[in-house]
Amino acid sequence: MMNTMLLGAIVTASSVIGLFFLRFWRSTGDRFFLFFALSFFIDAVNRVTLGPATPMEDNSPAYYLIRLISYGLILFAIYDKNRPKT
């Protein structure tokens, strides 16, 4: 019961943060905010779909592959923002 409640809180927080970054992307047009928004939305969808399916088994490769993609988007956004413009 407590795990389900915490999972819901994480999904809600990830969705709200994704909407926060999406709002900044719409007002500035900067891809940095778009990549962050996509990363948090992927995290929220990942937790909704895979969370209840395997409640006690977090060692599934699907969990970590999707999280790797999500965190990779954040790293790419940081790299893209800081690379020298030619």
TrEMBL record:
Highest taxon of source: Bacteria
Keywords: Membrane, Transmembrane, Transmembrane helix
Residues annotated as transmembrane: 6-25, 32-50, 62-79
InterPro entries: DUF5985 (IPR046027)
Pfam families, per the entry: DUF5985
Protein name: DUF5985 family protein
Taxonomic classification: Bacteria, Pseudomonadati, Pseudomonadota, Betaproteobacteria, Burkholderiales
